[in-house]
């Protein structure tokens, strides 16, 4: 492939797949012992960080030093922040309702079903979504305008995601907010600031691999897949289905953007009275 050594690329692709698989298998073992498979959500970010670290190591002598280091570091920072945040949020909690429903439908051994339908599936998604990182660390070209724009999008996405998570954590920590819908800060502009942040992060990382039309085409599946997961897959769609019966959520939906941030509409008269 133009600009990328095919032998080095094959090595990075295989090693990245093995890294994602290893992280998920270790997490599966821990989850099976603990009897709680929600820990795979923390492993999601950890797997991306691990793939980026391995790709950076294996790309030594191949890719431009600045590009490979900045892209790998950006992915590690994003992945570790997400892993730590989810681990703290889920500490001491029971099984995630999403996984409980999945396991309840299992035929036969639930752990085998969890391995196949949760861990191996997520490991495969990590490998596909991280393709721009795997390509970018091998590109010999120095950082350019597309990469600069991509890193700016990454930074904006990380800020949006981290701030949204922080605001929600503070809201939930206040006992007076129990049973209420979070509609403040970034959550007044979009119902999913964390998912929108992820969206920016991965479109940004995609741009760091867009040096040639070949690398742009080969890695386009990454941001498209992540966008589909966030909006139509296990992100926004499932969370909103879970929240649909919460008092006040329908009004919150009516006045707040579902994904892309925009100024909030004024509360309805009923909401003001509430």
UniProtKB/TrEMBL annotation:
InterPro entries per the UniProt record, alphabetical: UstE-like
* Chain positions covered by the region annotation Disordered: 253-274
Q: Which PROSITE patterns match?
A: S5A_REDUCTASE
Q: Which domain of life is it from?
A: Bacteria
Q: What is the phylogenetic placement of the source species in the record? A: Bacteria, Bacillati, Actinomycetota, Actinomycetes, Kitasatosporales
Query: Where are its TM segments located?
Result: 6-30, 42-60, 118-139, 145-164
- Biased composition (Pro residues) is annotated at 261-274
Cross-referenced PANTHER family: 3-OXO-5-ALPHA-STEROID 4-DEHYDROGENASE (PTHR32251), STEROID 5-ALPHA REDUCTASE C-TERMINAL DOMAIN-CONTAINING PROTEIN (PTHR32251:SF17)
Which protein, by its recorded name, is this? DUF1295 domain-containing protein
User: Which keywords appear in this protein's UniProt record, sorted alphabetically?
Assistant: Membrane, Transmembrane, Transmembrane helix
